[in-house]
Amino acid sequence: MVIASVSPLVRYLVACTVAVACLAFVPTRAAALYHLAVIDEVMTSYDSDANVQFVEIKMLFGSQNIVANSVLGAFDTGGTYIGDVLTVPTNVANSGANVRWIMATSQWQTLTGLVPDFIMPALLPTGGGMVCWGKPVSSSVPSNYIDCLAYGTYAGPTNVHIGTPTALDADGHSLVRTGHANSSLLDFQCGDPADPTNNAGGSVSMNATTACPVVTTTTTTTTTTTTTTTLPPPPVCGAVPAGGCLSGGKFVVLQKDNTVDTKDLLKWKIVKGEAFVNGDISDPVNTASYALCVYDESADVPTLVGELAVRPNERWLDKDPKGFIYKDKLGTADGVRKVQLKSGISGKTKVQVKAKGSTAGWPQPLDGSAFHDQDSLVTVQFVNDTTAMCWTSDFVAGGTKKNTGTLFKAVGP
Question: Looking at per-residue confidence, does 1 or 303 come out higher?
Fold first, then answer.
């Protein structure tokens, strides 16, 4: 067992939700001062000691430090509420994107020597269960929380936060967030070493005492031949549209389904957009995957019908201070030929995506008479898998120019 102080490690940020408020009678995007945060890392035991536990919360934006009276709740493998692990007594001092804080047991503090922000009892279920954090109206209702993680042998009901539970447990190692798909299966992986960080920036590295499983699938024939298949990268788009995204004064989408797949088209752009700067854009060359996400509503329930993902690569050009631009004439990433993220002041920014040639992730027509159901929205977003920065456009029927079995064209707002 090795425990050593290290600097905080940067990990993937996730999508988040926001609440809209009015200030001085002018509509603005705003959020409660704790909502824009997520469960980032969890450990339920260490070296076979179930008294060594911690939960790390990570802020996605600034001013998310008003955490007093938030609740850490625990649920068993069947989804039955066990009880409140901790009601957080005070706020934390520091805030900002990627700033973290820790709830941990006194035994964890003794073992690591790092002072957590709050001491909690050792009530997290080992082997499997669900842990949730937020300010719920009812602690026994998972959807009332800000975020949840379902792990190990959990076999209870799903909810908006966990999607599909992960079969990985948090015993002898941590579970650490790597995505934002609202799915415990896709959003968390085994952490070795665990590296929890408190609100003051102090961190420790905890080498796993139980080895992390290898993320591969294996099939064996009767002749004992074994093949190993590497799993594909997780999706960038969430199951439902992300909250808190920027938008613009005008947006346009064009989707065309041709009888020749290589001639399929998808174009989308936001112009006269809200302000953002180069520093708001996650590094698309080395770390961040970006994706155009298309959602179609039926009876006001959104369904992800298309994802065009561009994984980190050198085709991105940094045009600082005017954003980033991506060009690929061959469309090797899901047919995407061009992406422009033009930063600037409010009313002067632009985000656009152009793609050609259908791939598996492309949105397909609903049927022979309509491309989308659009009951009542078609939502198109551009998101990334390392921060909550995103851009969104909602298309209503009144702004739809064409919605046929081969063509969808709409403008907004």
Answer: 303
